[in-house]
Protein backbone atom coordinates (compact mmCIF):
# COMPACT_ATOMS: atom_id res chain seq x y z
CA UNK A 1 0.00 0.00 0.00
CA UNK A 2 1.53 3.32 -0.99
CA UNK A 3 1.23 6.66 0.84
CA UNK A 4 -1.76 7.91 -1.18
CA UNK A 5 -3.77 4.77 -0.38
CA UNK A 6 -2.97 5.15 3.34
CA UNK A 7 -4.04 8.81 3.45
CA UNK A 8 -7.29 7.97 1.65
CA UNK A 9 -8.05 5.23 4.20
CA UNK A 10 -7.26 7.60 7.09
CA UNK A 11 -9.81 10.12 5.82
CA UNK A 12 -12.67 7.60 5.64
CA UNK A 13 -15.12 7.14 8.50
CA UNK A 14 -15.89 3.78 10.11
CA UNK A 15 -19.16 3.54 8.18
CA UNK A 16 -17.29 3.89 4.86
CA UNK A 17 -14.59 1.32 5.64
CA UNK A 18 -15.21 -2.30 4.84
CA UNK A 19 -14.76 -4.99 7.47
CA UNK A 20 -11.46 -6.04 5.85
CA UNK A 21 -10.03 -2.53 6.14
CA UNK A 22 -11.18 -1.83 9.72
CA UNK A 23 -9.21 -3.24 12.64
CA UNK A 24 -9.96 -3.15 16.36
CA UNK A 25 -7.51 -0.26 16.79
CA UNK A 26 -9.38 1.75 14.15
CA UNK A 27 -12.55 1.79 16.27
CA UNK A 28 -11.17 4.72 18.26
CA UNK A 29 -9.56 6.34 15.21
CA UNK A 30 -12.75 6.14 13.11
CA UNK A 31 -15.56 6.37 15.66
CA UNK A 32 -19.21 6.28 14.70
CA UNK A 33 -21.36 9.28 15.65
CA UNK A 34 -22.85 7.38 18.60
CA UNK A 35 -19.32 6.72 19.89
CA UNK A 36 -18.58 10.45 19.85
CA UNK A 37 -21.84 11.18 21.66
CA UNK A 38 -21.08 8.55 24.29
CA UNK A 39 -17.51 9.80 24.70
CA UNK A 40 -18.72 13.37 25.31
CA UNK A 41 -21.44 12.31 27.76
CA UNK A 42 -19.01 10.01 29.59
CA UNK A 43 -16.53 12.85 29.88
CA UNK A 44 -19.23 15.13 31.30
CA UNK A 45 -20.28 12.40 33.77
CA UNK A 46 -16.74 12.24 35.14
CA UNK A 47 -16.28 16.02 35.37
CA UNK A 48 -17.08 17.55 38.75
CA UNK A 49 -17.48 21.19 37.78
CA UNK A 50 -18.55 20.79 34.17
CA UNK A 51 -16.46 21.37 31.04
CA UNK A 52 -16.21 23.97 28.32
CA UNK A 53 -16.43 23.02 24.65
CA UNK A 54 -12.71 23.75 24.25
CA UNK A 55 -11.83 21.44 27.13
CA UNK A 56 -14.02 18.72 25.64
CA UNK A 57 -12.37 19.05 22.23
CA UNK A 58 -8.88 18.97 23.74
CA UNK A 59 -9.69 15.93 25.90
CA UNK A 60 -11.23 14.03 22.98
CA UNK A 61 -8.15 14.69 20.87
CA UNK A 62 -5.50 14.01 23.51
CA UNK A 63 -7.10 11.11 25.38
CA UNK A 64 -9.09 9.35 22.66
CA UNK A 65 -7.49 10.58 19.45
CA UNK A 66 -10.83 11.86 18.14
CA UNK A 67 -10.81 15.15 16.28
CA UNK A 68 -14.24 16.79 16.39
CA UNK A 69 -15.23 20.01 14.66
CA UNK A 70 -16.26 22.73 17.13
CA UNK A 71 -19.61 23.24 15.41
CA UNK A 72 -20.39 19.53 15.56
CA UNK A 73 -19.50 19.41 19.26
CA UNK A 74 -21.64 22.47 19.99
CA UNK A 75 -24.58 20.90 18.13
CA UNK A 76 -24.13 17.66 20.07
CA UNK A 77 -24.12 19.46 23.43
CA UNK A 78 -27.10 21.61 22.42
CA UNK A 79 -29.06 18.49 21.42
CA UNK A 80 -28.23 16.82 24.74
CA UNK A 81 -29.42 19.96 26.55
CA UNK A 82 -32.76 19.72 24.75
CA UNK A 83 -32.99 16.07 25.77
CA UNK A 84 -32.35 17.06 29.40
CA UNK A 85 -29.08 15.17 29.78
CA UNK A 86 -26.79 18.20 29.90
CA UNK A 87 -27.29 21.58 31.54
CA UNK A 88 -25.49 24.85 31.24
CA UNK A 89 -23.67 25.57 34.50
CA UNK A 90 -22.52 29.04 33.51
CA UNK A 91 -21.45 30.78 30.35
CA UNK A 92 -19.52 28.31 28.24
CA UNK A 93 -19.58 25.45 30.78
CA UNK A 94 -21.77 22.38 30.66
CA UNK A 95 -22.44 19.56 33.14
CA UNK A 96 -24.20 16.22 33.02
CA UNK A 97 -27.63 15.97 34.68
CA UNK A 98 -27.51 13.07 37.14
CA UNK A 99 -30.46 10.71 36.76
CA UNK A 100 -31.32 11.90 33.24
CA UNK A 101 -30.68 8.51 31.62
CA UNK A 102 -30.96 4.87 32.54
CA UNK A 103 -28.11 3.11 34.29
CA UNK A 104 -27.42 0.92 31.25
CA UNK A 105 -27.14 3.96 28.96
CA UNK A 106 -24.89 5.70 31.47
CA UNK A 107 -22.68 2.59 31.62
CA UNK A 108 -22.38 2.60 27.81
CA UNK A 109 -21.31 6.25 27.90
CA UNK A 110 -18.67 5.61 30.57
CA UNK A 111 -17.35 2.50 28.75
CA UNK A 112 -17.90 3.56 25.13
CA UNK A 113 -14.58 2.14 23.88
CA UNK A 114 -15.44 -1.32 25.19
CA UNK A 115 -18.91 -1.11 23.64
CA UNK A 116 -17.44 -0.01 20.29
CA UNK A 117 -14.88 -2.82 20.33
CA UNK A 118 -17.55 -5.42 21.13
CA UNK A 119 -19.73 -4.07 18.31
CA UNK A 120 -16.76 -4.28 15.94
CA UNK A 121 -16.02 -7.88 17.01
CA UNK A 122 -19.70 -8.83 16.61
CA UNK A 123 -19.71 -7.32 13.13
CA UNK A 124 -16.58 -9.31 12.23
CA UNK A 125 -18.32 -12.55 13.18
CA UNK A 126 -21.30 -11.60 11.03
CA UNK A 127 -23.64 -11.26 14.00
CA UNK A 128 -24.45 -7.60 13.41
CA UNK A 129 -27.83 -6.05 12.86
CA UNK A 130 -30.29 -7.51 10.39
CA UNK A 131 -30.37 -5.72 7.05
CA UNK A 132 -33.68 -4.17 6.12
CA UNK A 133 -35.10 -4.40 2.64
Question: Beta-sheet strand percentage?
Answer: 5-15%
The largest sheet, given as strand count, sense and whether it forms a barrel, is: 3 strands, antiparallel
Quaternary assembly: single chain
Overall number of strands: 3
**How far do the termini sit from each other?**
35 Å
> What's the pLDDT, averaged over the residues?
81
CATH top-level class of the domain at 31-123:
Mainly Alpha
| DSSP summary: helix tally | 7
The shape, in one word, is globular
Descriptive account of the structure:
- The protein is mainly alpha-helical.
- 56% of the residues lie in helices and 8% in strands.
- Helix 3 packs across helix 6.
- The longest helix is centred in the first third of the chain and has 14 residues.
- The protein is globular and about 45 Å long.
- The N terminus is likely disordered.
Amino acid sequence: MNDTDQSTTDQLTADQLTADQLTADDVAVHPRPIDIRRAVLGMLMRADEGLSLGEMRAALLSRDGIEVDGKRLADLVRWQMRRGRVRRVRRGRYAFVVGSMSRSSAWRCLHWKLVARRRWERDQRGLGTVERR
